[in-house]
Task: structure prediction
Amino acid sequence: MSDPLSTWKEGAAKDAIIGHVEQTCADGSPGWVPVQERVAVFDNDGTLWCEKPMPIQLDFVLRRLAEMAELDPSLRVRQPWKAAHERDYAWLAQVMAEHYAGDDTNVKTLGAGVVAAFANITVDEFEADSDAFLRSTRHPTLGRGYLECAYAPMVELLAYLRANGFVNYIASGGGRDFMRPISDEVYGIPREGVIGSAVALAYTPDENGGAITRQAAADYLDDGAEKPVHIWARTGRRPVLAAGNSNGDIEMLDFTHHRDRPSLRLLVLHDDAEREFDYVAGAERALERAASRGWTLVSVKDDWATVF
Amino acid sequence: MSDPLSTWKEGAAKDAIIGHVEQTCADGSPGWVPVQERVAVFDNDGTLWCEKPMPIQLDFVLRRLAEMAELDPSLRVRQPWKAAHERDYAWLAQVMAEHYAGDDTNVKTLGAGVVAAFANITVDEFEADSDAFLRSTRHPTLGRGYLECAYAPMVELLAYLRANGFVNYIASGGGRDFMRPISDEVYGIPREGVIGSAVALAYTPDENGGAITRQAAADYLDDGAEKPVHIWARTGRRPVLAAGNSNGDIEMLDFTHHRDRPSLRLLVLHDDAEREFDYVAGAERALERAASRGWTLVSVKDDWATVF
Result:
């Protein structure tokens, strides 16, 4: 038999995955899970594709904010347009650090800019923009296009799960409608499998089917305790497998627990400065939780034979 | 070849359905739709199962409100507990009539009661309640259990679509979590295919996976212009087939239109007092729209060989 996880090195993480899938799928075993209940959920940024030096969607948003500031000088003194215009990545890094430390004051400022950056356009226009960006933009340091920034071992894991009857969902803090145009091509996850943050939408009818338009307000941020809520809202199920990498994934990983059947919780540890990045900022509490709750740590350095 | 719609009488509606499915699935034809884009959306109350003398979920809610008023006399003077306690169906009929006429004052009163009736219980407890209700309760006049109130021709249509690669969704004004326990059994639509109104939910962690709890507030009412929005949010697609029966379905049916491919819009007309019910209240604007936009009318009396 061929190795279903050939991009994974032999070790505890690979064993845990194969062990979980085998007992989940072994009809008659005590760990067997009916096929329709084999729901697996994945964070995206830092779990399925890389998120350094900044989340891919943040690059997309900053370019748009910079364009807006280029056209309207009055925006250049207001955050987040100011940071985008001045390429002030330190301000942005600070916002993310504050967020993971529990202070969302500046996240709200950034969020208001993000929401305004793509307000009053249709979901089709937004999709064309994000699709074009993702296909045409290169990662700033890795020497590859953004669409090639998905982790090969995770893509192989998704395929392995799918082959065993699992349905994979992306439960990302990133924007649902940003990921949808490429999710099937990159991950084999169709549009309807993408759960993520969303802006408020409104339907405007016309003679030709009408349009759905993005509003200048968030609907919800799919992070932290919102992840289990939106996984439930979308699927109506408690997953049997979850993978994340940061503090924002703790509740999703906690939720992926059953009293009467096995579950697998994976936490990706970025510890490979040579092939990808080496950081724990934003993952400190998740790493503690992994140790105390018995989650399976996935070391980029030690568990992945290849990263991309 | 066997008739895929044997519960439908020969006629324009049956012809329109079969014609639409055949051209949608004919690879190489100008009307061909790739299988992953064959999304069909269905209203539930009055479209997939009956909604008279009152929507099935309203019966469920009223029994709960009456129980609450039984335990707490102070509720008996407040709507909607008063109406539930006194079995004052005239008040409820009036609320529905006002809603369809565009006045939602009393709908808000009713909604607040509905939301309060099942607040602060987990989604699992709510599901056990609705499941037990649906399996144990009989329709007040039709002489059958509620689970047998689904329309056989619509159930056959769902199966016919599924056999042709369509994915069916329930886009109902009714509660998502009310329908989910029975949607697969009754309609062959799995839990993740149920779109519907929702209350706000919150996740509370604990050592055993935590719980998702219903809050005392609506998240959204999946009716009117919210239907296209939530169909998009869930599926990321514009449907190629939609079926409804009331004014609340107009936007969903409008949205189901493509400039470059065929779409089918079905509007169920309740005109059979003998086998089901005969009413147009709440569907007046939808019926006008059907005439002016070329939607396909489905007459219970003339198009269905059997109703249940």
User: Anything to note?
Assistant: The radius of gyration of chain A is 20 Å. The interface with chain B takes residues 36, 123, 167, 176-177, 180, 184, 190-192, 194, 198, 201-203, 205, 208-210, 212, 225-229, 232-238, 251, 254-259 of chain A (CB under 8 Å). DSSP finds twelve helices and eight strands in chain A. The beta strands of chain A are 39-42, 167-175, 194-204, 211-220, 241-244, 264-271, 278-279, 296-299.
